[in-house]
Write a structure and sequence with these properties.
The complex is a heterodimer of chains A (about 300) and B (about 260). Chain A is of the alpha/beta class and about 300 residues long. Chain A is about 40% helix and about 20% strand. The relative contact order of chain A is 0.13. The longest helix of chain B has 20 residues. The chains are: A alpha/beta (about 300), B mainly alpha (about 260).
C-alpha cells in the first residue's frame, strides 16, 4: 500500500467492528439516552465517580445506522466503553405498509457490528399508505386495540424476531386518542400481543402514568396486570402537562413523584430490571441529570437486596 | 395497494390522512379535536425540525411563512421512503424535485439548487463511504510525471457539484438575480469538518474526469489532461501537465487527493 500523505484522514480508514473490550455487553443497572448534547459531557466525565451509575447507553438505530464521520467515531467511542441498547422508532409494527425487511437487515448488521444485545420497539405504527403511497410519518401513532390488530402485530413481531434471530422487546406506548373502534383495553391488548408473539416486554412506567391520566384509569392496577416474566427493560421519564386530563410524553421534564412510585412498585412486584432515564428535550447539564440516574440506582440497590 | 384493508387499518388510514391534511380530510368519527390535535402538532413539528435543521439559508430566503407552508405541503403531498431520520432532508429534496408541491407556493428558480447545496453539507458530514487503502499503489510517493498514467484516489467523501446559480453566496440579503454557472468541490477533512472549494470550469472538468463522474470510469491523469487539452485554446502539453500536477498537489495538501492506483 499506500498513500501519498502520511497524515491519513481517519475517516478514510475502514472501521473495524470495535470491540475487543473486556467489558460485558449485558444491559444492566441504569442507562441514559445518547443525546448529542450529552455525548461530550459523558466523554469528559468518563471514569469519574460522578457518573459511575451510568451502566449503559441507549440509541435509536434510525439515528445511527450508516452514520459516518464524527457520529461514527462517537459511537465507536461509546461501544468500546458501554453496553448499548437499541430502541427503535420507525419499524412500524402496527403499520399498514409491509414490514421493512431491508431496514431490518440493516438493524441486524448494526446490532452485530456493535454487539448490541437488546433491540426494543414500540407497540405503535409510523407508516401509512396515503393516496396509495407507503410513507413514513416518523412518529409513534396509536394502534386501535382490536383482536384483528393483535394478530396482525403479533405476526409482524414474530417475523421480525425470525429475521433478527433474536427476541425483541415491545414497549407500551403513550397515546392521546382512544380509537373508537377499540374493543379491548390497553393491558389486555398489550398482553395478548406479547403472548401471541412470544416476545419480551419493555415496560415504560411514565407511559403507563401518562395514559392513566389521559384515559382515566388506575396506573397501579395496570402495572399489576403486566406479565412480569417478560420484562427485560424499562423506561422512566418526565412529561408535559397540557391540561389536567392531557399529558404529553415529551421526555422534556423531570420525573414526577407518582411515576417514581410506579417504578418502585414495579421493582417490588417483578424484581429490578435495567432502567433507562429518557430525556430528549430541554436537556439539563449532566450533573443535574445524574440526580435522577442515581435515584434509579438507589431504588435498584434497595430492591435487589 | 390499499385494497382489502382490515377494519383497524381503515381507521389508521383515516387517522393519518387527517394528520397529513387536517384542512381537507375529515376527522375520524368520534375522535376529539383536542386529542388528535396533539398528533397534528407532534408529527408536523418533528418533521419541521428535522427538515429545517438542514436548510438554514433556504428557509431564511423563503421567509418563515412560505417555509412553513412548504413543509406542510411535504407532509400533505409526499410519502417518505426512508426510516432513517438522517435521510428526511433527502426525502424533502425528492419532494422538491416533484411538481406536486407547487400547488400553493411559487419557489424561486434557484431554490432547488440552494436546498441541494445545503443538503450536501449534511450528506458529506455523515458519509460512511470508505476507501480501501490496500488498492492504492505503494511505490508512488510524490506527485510528478510518474503518476501520469495512474488514476487518482480521492477522499471518499468528495462531491463535485455544478449549479446554475452561485448557491454558496446566497443569503437573505443576497438573493441571485441571474444564473451564474458555479462549480464546487465539497469534502470532509480529517477533523470531520466539511469544506467547500469553488472551482473554475476547467478544474471541475479535470476532477470530474479523474473521479469518473462524467464517463462512469475514472481516467488516468494523462487521459484526463488530453481530454482537457482538446477543449482549450492553444494547448501546450507541458503547460497542461504542469497545470494538472499543480492542482493535484494542492488537493493533496488539503487531504483531498490521498494516493494513486
Amino acid at each position: 500500500m499506500a498513500v501519498i500523505n502520511s497524515r491519513m484522514p481517519s475517516h478514510a480508514l475502514k472501521t473495524p467492528a470495535s470491540n475487543t473490550t473486556q467489558q460485558s455487553k449485558i444491559i444492566k443497572g441504569v442507562g441514559i439516552g445518547l443525546k448529542r448534547e450529552l455525548i461530550p459531557q459523558i466523554q469528559k466525565a468518563y471514569g469519574q465517580h460522578d457518573i459511575a451509575n451510568i451502566n449503559f447507553v441507549e440509541i435509536a438505530p434510525e439515528n445511527w445506522i450508516n452514520a459516518g464521520g464524527k457520529a461514527a467515531k462517537q459511537l465507536d467511542w461509546f461501544a468500546e466503553r458501554y453496553p448499548i441498547a437499541c430502541h427503535g422508532l420507525c419499524l412500524s409494527l402496527g403499520g399498514i405498509s409491509p414490514l421493512n425487511t431491508a431496514f431490518l437487515q440493516q438493524v441486524k448488521s448494526f446490532l452485530q457490528q456493535y454487539q448490541i444485545p437488546l433491540y426494543t420497539e414500540h407497540l405503535s405504527f409510523s407508516t401509512d399508505a396515503y393516496q396509495g403511497q407507503h410513507g413514513y410519518l416518523y412518529d409513534l401513532l396509536p394502534i386501535p386495540f382490536t383482536e384483528e390488530a393483535v394478530h396482525y402485530v403479533a405476526k409482524r413481531i414474530r417475523r421480525t424476531q425470525d429475521i433478527l434471530g433474536q427476541k425483541i422487546a415491545i414497549e407500551n406506548t403513550s397515546y392521546y386518542v382512544k380509537a373508537p373502534i377499540s374493543t379491548l383495553d390497553e393491558p389486555t391488548f398489550l398482553n395478548a400481543v406479547l403472548t401471541e408473539a412470544d416476545c419480551l416486554l419493555h415496560l415504560d412506567v411514565n407511559n403507563i402514568y401518562v395514559n392513566s391520566v389521559n384515559f382515566g384509569f388506575d396506573p397501579h392496577a395496570f402495572l399489576r396486570q403486566m406479565h412480569g416474566h417478560r420484562i427485560v427493560y424499562s423506561h422512566i421519564a418526565g412529561h408535559y402537562t397540557q391540561a389536567t386530563d392531557l399529558l404529553v410524553d415529551t421526555h422534556g421534564e423531570d420525573v414526577i413523584d407518582p411515576v417514581w412510585a410506579l417504578l418502585e412498585e414495579a421493582y417490588t412486584l417483578f424484581g429490578t430490571f435495567p432502567t433507562l432515564l429518557e430525556r430528549d428535550n430541554n436537556i439539563p447539564p449532566l450533573p443535574e441529570l445524574m440526580r435522577e440516574v442515581n435515584k434509579i440506582a438507589e431504588f435498584q440497590a434497595r430492591y435487589d437486596q | 395497494m390499499t385494497n382489502n384493508l382490515l377494519a383497524f387499518q381503515e381507521y389508521q388510514q383515516a387517522f393519518t390522512a387527517y394528520i397529513r391534511d387536517p384542512k381537507n380530510q375529515p376527522r375520524p368519527n368520534n375522535v376529539a379535536v383536542s386529542r388528535i390535535a396533539v398528533y397534528e402538532e407532534i408529527v408536523f413539528t418533528n418533521l419541521f425540525d428535522a427538515i429545517s435543521a438542514c436548510f438554514p439559508v433556504a428557509q431564511k430566503v423563503l421567509g418563515i411563512r412560505a417555509w412553513l407552508g412548504l413543509v406542510q405541503s411535504f407532509l400533505r403531498n409526499y410519502s417518505a421512503n426512508s426510516p432513517l431520520f438522517r435521510q428526511i432532508p433527502e426525502e424533502f429534496l425528492s419532494f422538491l424535485a416533484q411538481t406536486k408541491y407547487s400547488d400553493t407556493i411559487v419557489l424561486p428558480d434557484y431554490f432547488f439548487s440552494l436546498c441541494h447545496y445545503e443538503w450536501v453539507e449534511l450528506a458529506v458530514s455523515s458519509s460512511n463511504k470508505v476507501l480501501d487503502l490496500s488498492l492504492l499503489d505503494s511505490e508512488i510517493s510524490v506527485l510528478n510525471h510518474d503518476i501520469l498514467d495512474r488514476k487518482i484516489a480521492f477522499t471518499p467523501s468528495i462531491q463535485l457539484l455544478s449549479y446554475d446559480y452561485a448557491v454558496h453566496i446566497i443569503s437573505p440579503r443576497k438573493k441571485p438575480t441571474q444564473a451564474v454557472s458555479t462549480q464546487l468541490l465539497v469534502y470532509r477533512n480529517s477533523l470531520d469538518a466539511v469544506k467547500f472549494i469553488e472551482l473554475n470550469s476547467v478544474t471541475f472538468r479535470l476532477l470530474s474526469l479523474l473521479c469518473g463522474d462524467e464517463t462512469g470510469e475514472a481516467l488516468t491523469v494523462r487521459q484526463a489532461l488530453i481530454n482537457i487539452a482538446e477543449v482549450l485554446v492553444q494547448p501546450e502539453p507541458d503547460l497542461i501537465i504542469a497545470f494538472g500536477l499543480e492542482i493535484l498537489e494542492d488537493l493533496r495538501s488539503k487531504e483531498i487527493v490521498l494516493g494513486v492506483y
